[in-house]
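FORM 7B: Structural annotation worksheet

SECTION A. Query
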Amino acid sequence: MRVDSKYFNNFRVLQVVAAAMSVVLILGYLIGCRTGAGNHSLQNITVNVQADGSDVLKLRSWVRQVLDATSTDENLKGTVVLDLDLRAPKAMVPIRRDGVLLDRTQELVIRGTLAWRRQSSSCLVDKSVIFSSRAPGPLEHKIEKMVYRSVAECLRSLAGSSKVLGMNEAELVRRLPTMDGQELDLALKKIVDRRMTGAAPALVHMFRATGDEKLKKRLLGVFARLRARGAVDDIIAWARSKDSDELVPVLAVLAQISGPKAEAFLQWAAHFHGDAHVREEAAKLLDRIQMETPRQPVPVRGQPPAGHERKERQPPDILPGEGHRRLDIRGG
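SECTION B. Predicted structure
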């Protein structure tokens, strides 16, 4: 059977065009996964994937589906970078679950970074699946579910951070009592970095109200950086119940805040505390305060202090009594 060369050539051209379009679509898909451009509303997301072989394409596809399914969050400001690392399976200490011996694990690590107006925040999600090397079962489905949960968790964390980064001082102070976890950590960092001294009363109230010792110690660092003298009374009241090892760092905070009340407590600790180590450390802190306090210059004997120089008395232009001129007693 004879085939017309004209039709054959047209068919070859169509094949070439179709292949070129396929390449363009694949490149567009891969670039879309990397830049976060797609139908989803989060256009400011860059996704970087590290995995073995064909897992890269699968991972990109799963991440894209998560982003497409993510609802618009107007609080997610700035640019976001998600670095995904799906690590190769490795052996683990075998455990038996539901009659199956599980001896392999595969780990997924996601590092998310949010940058907005010279501020930044980050999240780290580390999850893994375990399976049997002999009967892995629906392993790909397990990894897919792990990717969905991990990406969504990281985005939620960054969205919460974005809200904090976008707050002004008044809004941040108002929201402080409701914050916890990473959101509170970021808020405290922002207060210190921006030296938001207006937040000190709210932080003092938080210090007084909380029973969380870890939170109290975190707040001590904030008070020291802000030199929050309004917190000194509460710090001293809390410090009186501490043992020697816990008290010394508190004394260092009080020395950094300084002020009459803080120095008075340091004086008490340096002279009357029952532990010699505490007395020694308090004395060192007092010496440091003394060295850092600017001293007034000591006037030379017979020389008046600065600002009180003796001035030569000049005769007044007008004698006491209105309308009297200074008398001229020189001979004429």
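SECTION C. Observations
The beta strands are 45-50, 79-86, 90-97, 100-116, 119-131. The mean pLDDT is 80.

SECTION D. Sign-off
Analyst initials: ____
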